[in-house]
Design a protein that fits this description.
Oligomer: single chain
CATH architecture: Sandwich
Distance between the termini: 12 Å
Number of helices: 4
Number of domains: 1
Radius of gyration: 17 Å
Bound molecules: 2-oxoglutaric acid, fe (ii) ion
Strand content: 15-25%
CATH topology: Jelly Rolls
Structural class: alpha+beta
Number of strands: 12
Helix content: 10-25%
Largest sheet: 6 strands, antiparallel
């Protein structure tokens, strides 16, 4: 396994690649359990919870937006994964190297956060609009991994627009800065229109599967269409390395 602490970001380089699936089983189960406990412990700082708590029911307990925003901001911080991170990281580095021939290593030293988990309540605007991660300069050279843990079954996933990783930026009309949609300000600019016809899809993922995609792929708009389940997903960003 590569020693990422000595990694110089100049060794990262981007090549576009079509989205692919990887399997995180059997680590998935322990990751889901650990993250359920982390979120449980975070919620009980704010309010009581029944003994049996699962991620799917999150929206039934976290009712107030202000509480949800505190929890979801905390969840986007890499530190919350603690001891779980080295295990997941090694697994994904190995998978990206072996199954997909992507020489990827932990994205160290970037200004942006490289992992976190996203909590999307049913019907709420907790997801990103359509965007390219590469529009944030520090994510230009990353490999994205989107690993849903709950509420994603039956294609209740974020959308991707296949083929757009090859689209020239000049063919995409986007907001200048972070998008503002229905009074909510997002960190990323949003894609408003494309110069060619593309169809968004919501990839169907099985339990334990994750989606690997280029930071140039347009993705987002992941409204949670299931009225009864909260969707929780982990997002990781690896540095694409030629070494
Ligand atoms: O899950 C979402 O709504 C957005 C995720 C995303 O933008 C990403 O993984 O880069
Ligand atoms: Fe993104």
């Amino acid at each position: 396994m590569s020693n990422s602490s000595s990694l110089d970001l100049k060794n990262c380089s981007h090549k576009s690649f079509a989205p692919q699936k990887i399997s995180l089983t059997p680590e998935f189960e322990s990751a889901a359990k650990a993250i359920t406990k982390l979120i449980h412990d975070k919620i009980i700082v704010h309010q009581q919870l029944p003994e049996i708590f699962n991620l799917e029911n999150y929206h039934n307990y976290v009712i107030q937006d202000s509480v949800h925003f505190q929890i979801s901001n905390w969840a986007m911080e890499q530190e919350v994964l603690g001891d779980l991170w080295p295990i997941l990281k090694s697994k994904m580095e190995a998978l990206l190297r072996e199954s997909l021939d992507l020489k990827a290593i932990e994205h160290q030293g970037a200004i942006g956060k490289f992992l976190g988990f996203r909590i999307v309540r049913p019907g709420k605007p907790d997801f990103n609009p359509f965007h390219r991660d590469a529009w944030l300069p520090y994510w230009r050279d990353v490999v994205n991994v989107w690993a849903p843990l709950s509420g994603f079954e039956g294609g209740n996933t974020m959308s991707i627009i296949p083929g757009t990783h090859n689209l020239d930026d000049s063919e995409i009309l986007k907001t200048k800065k972070g998008a503002i949609i229905n009074d909510k300000t997002y960190h990323v600019p949003a894609a408003i229109a494309l110069g060619q016809n593309f169809e968004p899809i919501t990839p169907v993922l099985e339990k334990g599967e994750a989606l690997v995609f280029s930071p140039y792929l347009i993705h987002g708009n992941g409204i949670n269409r299931n009225p009864d389940t909260t969707r929780v997903s982990i997002e990781f960003r690896f540095c694409k390395s030629e070494i």
